[in-house]
Specification:
Layout lengths: L3 H11 L17 H11 L6 H5 L3 E7 L12 E7 L10 E4 L35 H10 L13 H9 L1 H15 L2
Antiparallel strand pairs: 1-2, 2-3
Helix pairs in contact: 5-6
Amino acid sequence: MLTLASKLKREEGVGAGRTSAGSNEASHRVSIRDRLLIKGTNHCPNTPPTFANLLFHCKYLLNVNLFYEGYYLGGKFQFEIEVPEAYNMVPPRVKCLTRIWHPNIAETGEICLSLLREHSIDGTGWAPTRTLKDVVWGLNSLFTDLLNFDDPLNIDAAEHHLRDKEDFRNKVQDFIKNYAR
């Protein structure tokens, strides 16, 4: 498996003027995306090792434990994060791999999180100054302060919450018990 760290070390070893015979220096360059990923994950103390090790496709496991409160306490939710070649000019693509009953996550895994929008009217969307640390923070916040029933992606979940909060809580706990342990 090719990792960012090994790719950067290889480039440093090749360096300017030290290319091996027959190799093309351009093929050994590390992209801006790769450098940003290394820099970004070095500053994320709570990211699992697999997060920094893969070039542009990784999984993030969010464990909603005692630091959280609310509907999703006790759940473990897995997210797939794909970082496109044009990163940091475009946002990563994120999908929830765990079945979940959530107003801002569709049953197919799509996520409604403003910072993942490439174009945003209100200015809260993706910007080149954002990092993967912001994405991880945003995913964590979907289970606490960014839980939004007023602008849902999963309309059925939001309406369920409006109709019967206790039944909504029970359904969330059923999903956690069956899919997120």
